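hiii so um. not sure if this is the right channel but i have a protein structure encoded as tokens and i wanna go backwards to a sequence. like what aa goes where. can anyone help
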């Protein structure tokens, strides 16, 4: 039955799918668009290199016009989750949808299908066997690695339940009730205009990589079964995120 405690983690890893997340402050890193404009402050279409006279070609425009996105599990891949104690869960499918809500923020919801542990199907209340329906989550954009200069910074997203003190997901596996709480980070793609992004989460021994922003405390996901102690968890998943327009996370502006 130990294996069943991992199920809660599934939602946490998948939630990490929101590549463009953040806080309300309009400063780097933030997402927006690098647009071709005569007299712009940047030399290239990444808006990371300042222009010089005669090369004022691009300008950074914070925010987006079309703010919605969807996510899907990469074809042919599985979602695998594990606790630090070795409990494992797999899901064969996963989809999500959401929207960018501010200079650094997103909100979204996610569904996992074909989920089981030791060949026991799990499901959220009222959902078909094998289906986990996640609660809404918010995202916060921050630095995973601070480079020697801003354009070399690496960005991550911190995903957490939208309801303060709430859970990522609640479900049952053959009568065992499982909940997942906390926070989960995932690497993001920075300094490039993209409309489709491959998001890859990795973990080892039930510990997600990364676990925190630069100079911030650890943010981790935990699961509990039948009201028992919470146990740290991590996931391995590859998702395809599709946006309505090309958007960039910029670490320079």
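sure thing!! here u go:
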């Amino acid at each position: 039955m130990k294996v069943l405690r991992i199920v809660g983690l599934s939602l946490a890893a998948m939630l990490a799918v929101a590549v463009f997340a953040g806080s309300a402050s309009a400063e780097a890193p933030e997402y927006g668009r690098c647009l071709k404009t005569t007299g712009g402050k940047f030399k290239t279409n990444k808006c990371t290199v300042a222009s010089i006279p005669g090369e004022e070609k691009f300008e950074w425009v914070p925010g987006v016009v079309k703010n919605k996105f969807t996510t899907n599990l990469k074809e042919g891949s599985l979602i695998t989750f594990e606790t630090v104690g070795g409990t494992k869960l797999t899901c064969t499918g996963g989809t999500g949808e959401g929207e960018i809500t501010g200079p650094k923020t997103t909100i979204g919801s996610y569904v996992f299908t074909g989920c089981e542990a030791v060949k026991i199907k799990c499901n959220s209340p009222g959902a078909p066997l094998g289906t986990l329906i996640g609660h809404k989550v918010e995202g916060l954009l921050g630095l995973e690695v601070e480079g020697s200069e801003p354009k070399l910074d690496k960005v991550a997203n911190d995903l957490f339940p939208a309801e303060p003190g709430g859970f990522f997901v609640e479900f049952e596996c053959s009568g065992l009730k499982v909940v997942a709480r906390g926070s989960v980070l995932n690497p993001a793609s920075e300094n490039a205009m993209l409309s489709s992004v491959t998001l890859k989460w990795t973990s080892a021994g039930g510990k997600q990589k990364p676990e925190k922003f630069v100079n911030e405390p650890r943010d981790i996901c935990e699961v509990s079964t039948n009201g028992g102690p919470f146990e740290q968890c991590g996931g391995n998943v590859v998702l395809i995120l599709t946006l309505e327009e090309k958007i960039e996370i910029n670490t320079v502006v």
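oh and The longest strand covers residues 231-250.
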